[in-house]
Write a structure and sequence with these properties.
By secondary structure, the chain is α/β, with parallel strands linked by helices. It folds into 3 domains: 2-140 and 281-355, Rossmann fold (3-Layer(aba) Sandwich); 143-272, Response regulator (Rossmann fold, 3-Layer(aba) Sandwich), CATH 3.40.50; 358-522, 2-Layer Sandwich (Beta-Lactamase). The chain contains 17 helices and 19 strands. It has helices at residues 2-16, 39-56, 77-89, 102-115, 143-156, 170-186, 204-213, 227-237, 256-262, 282-295, 301-320, 326-333, 357-379, 385-388, 409-424, 457-463, 473-480; strands spanning 25-32, 59-60, 63-71, 95-98, 118-121, 136-138, 161-167, 189-196, 217-221, 246-250, 270-272, 337-340, 343-346, 394-395, 404-405, 430-437, 486-494, 497-510, 513-522. The strands form 5 sheets. It has a 6-stranded mixed β-sheet with strand order 2-3-1-4-5-6, with helices on both faces. Strands 8-7-9-10-11 form a 5-stranded parallel β-sheet. Strands 16-19-18-17 form a 4-stranded antiparallel β-sheet, with helices on both faces. The two termini are 42 Å apart.
């Protein structure tokens, strides 16, 4: 009975403290591992935060921003939970932020949910995190997207067998499962796997065990900080040659600081990741220059997570007019879109998770490939420019739903559809991809959606979508946009059912003229 009373009292305290906050101040409780093996992780996240606040000022929507920093010392979920409670009850913070490590984040999420406090996760990458509090959102990424990308790429690059080594906690499990799933789905074989302790591991024995198997390839995941360099050193000391055994991993493995420590041991390691300071876009170049001027080092994925996290907090406060209660802030954050140093960013309004930039890069690569094929055909006389831009839509007799032919359709079926099919095979959760002109006409589609029509219009709507004109609001917005990519979440109608999908639109330019868009649709696993 007493236990129930104490819990109820704590909850009442948590829910009531915001009223005591100074009206002109928004307090942010920053929970990070400022000491221990993950100290540099915290430093870089905080560097991103400090840089954003220096650029934008410490006042937003008429409110002064105050940061209160707390150190977990490493992987310490009980400490993280206690610190979150103290920040809310004693320090009267309005927002919880930071969160480099999954166990700590999951523990603090309970407090966010109980106290109804807006929570911005700037690094922790286990996929389930945002399901633990309806007031949490994320500005980093999720590991399944990276693991699956690497798994599919590995097999398509000729690797048939793989051994996996991951840290034994949520992110490692996510990375391992995603790599296994995609690699085996593509046709590869997993010959073995090991999970290594996340706290103070000695990698030597694990690396020796992998080497003794003489695998064709090894996929690795360890958390950023001190561990990537230690693992790389173990590979070098045990004589594992990346030129003979292909070593693949997530981006932490070859982060700039890790490479400096690893030296030649880093050469030949292949990774997939969502940010690199060498990204060639104007905003990133400015970000890198400013980060170097302020902190005397290049930014990394930790830095950009902190930088984008503060952007999300500032913009959400602007939308609420300075209201800092959890319900107002999470409502403002849902669907938020902005340009980040890593490219276009968006928060999914349903999951409150980041829409992954890895899909944007894939869509942009696909668009460049399609453009190259079309322009080469124009240069080679295989199709005339006026046929590529033919908008004389000729109704196809008897089609239901209505379909339309143009002079571009046969070329698109023959030359572009195989490319669309290959892009769809990239990952198992890609629903499809298509090109649509400025009027929403689809000259071709993936093969699965280009079946011969039947008498059933519902079946046709799902499996015979080529030659259709589908000019819905999201397509109109994408055509009107001049951004390098546009993101969205919507319900895709396929026959008599609706499929919730995330969509990336990339403008398609042919010979300097806007033709329309390339679209990539995918679903969360």
């Amino acid at each position: 009975m007493r236990k129930s009373f104490v819990a109820a009292s704590l909850l009442a305290t948590l829910l009531g403290v915001s009223a005591a906050n100074a009206q002109g101040t928004v307090k942010i409780g920053l929970i990070l591992p400022y000491s221990g093996q993950f100290a540099d992780t915290a430093t870089q996240i905080d560097n991103g935060i400090k840089l954003y606040m220096k650029q934008k000022g410490d006042t937003v929507a008429g409110k002064k921003i105050e940061i209160i920093r707390k150190d977990t010392g490493g992987v310490a979920p009980d400490v993280a939970k206690r610190l979150a409670q103290e920040l809310i009850v004693r320090d009267n913070v309005d927002i919880l932020a930071g969160f480099a490590l999954t166990p700590n984040t999951l523990a603090a999420s309970d407090i966010s949910a109980e106290a109804k406090k807006f929570m911005v996760i700037m690094n922790a990458a286990t996929s389930i995190i945002t399901t633990k509090s309806n007031y949490s959102t994320r500005t980093s990424m999720t590991l399944p997207m990276v693991g699956e990308t690497m798994g599919t790429w590995a097999y398509k690059s000729g690797i048939k067998k793989a051994y996996t080594m991951v840290s034994d906690f949520g992110p490692g499990h996510d990375a391992e499962g995603a790599f296994h799933r995609a690699f085996k789905a593509a046709g590869g074989e997993i010959i073995g796997s090991v999970r290594m302790p996340v706290a103070n591991p000695d990698f030597s024995a694990f690396v020796q065990r992998a080497k003794d198997l003489n695998p064709e390839s090894i996929f690795i995941f360890v958390p950023g900080g001190a561990q990537p360099a230690a693992l790389g050193k173990a590979f070098a000391e045990r004589g594992v040659d990346p030129n003979k055994i292909k070593i693949m991993g997530t981006g932490e493995v070859v982060d700039e600081q890790a490479i400096k420590s690893m030296g030649d041991a880093a050469l030949g390691i292949i990774t997939a990741w969502h940010y690199d300071y060498n990204l060639d876009n104007k905003l990133n170049k400015e970000f890198v220059a400013a980060h170097n001027a302020e902190h005397k080092r290049n930014p990394d994925f930790f830095s950009v997570g902190g930088y984008d996290g503060m952007h999300l907090i500032y913009e959400s406060l602007k939308k609420t007019g300075g209201k800092a209660d959890g319900d107002s802030l999470i409502a403002a954050a849902k669907g938020m879109k902005w340009e980040s140093p890593r490219g276009p960013m968006s928060i999914d309004p349903e999951t409150r998770d980041v829409i992954e930039t890895i899909y944007i890069r894939k869509a942009q690569e696909a668009t460049r490939e399609l453009c190259a094929v079309i322009e080469a055909a124009i240069d080679g006389g295989q199709i005339a420019p006026e046929d590529v831009f033919d908008h004389d839509y000729k109704p196809i007799a008897g089609s239901n739903p209505p379909r339309f032919d143009t002079a571009f359709c046969d070329f698109a079926d023959g030359f572009l559809r195989p490319l669309l099919d290959s892009f769809t095979d990239w990952r198992s959760n890609v629903v499809g991809c298509v090109i649509s002109d400025v009027n929403g006409h689809l000259p071709t589609h993936i093969s699965r959606r280009c079946q011969p029509p039947r008498e059933d219009p519902v079946w046709n709507d799902e499996f015979c979508r080529n030659r259709r004109i589908l000019l819905k609001d999201n397509v109109r917005d994408a055509v009107a946009s001049e951004r390098s990519a546009m993101l969205g979440t919507y319900r895709l109608q396929l026959g008599d059912r609706y499929v919730p999908v995330k969509n990336v639109f990339v403008p398609l330019w042919i010979k300097g003229r806007r033709w329309g868009n390339f679209e990539l649709a995918y679903r969360d696993q």
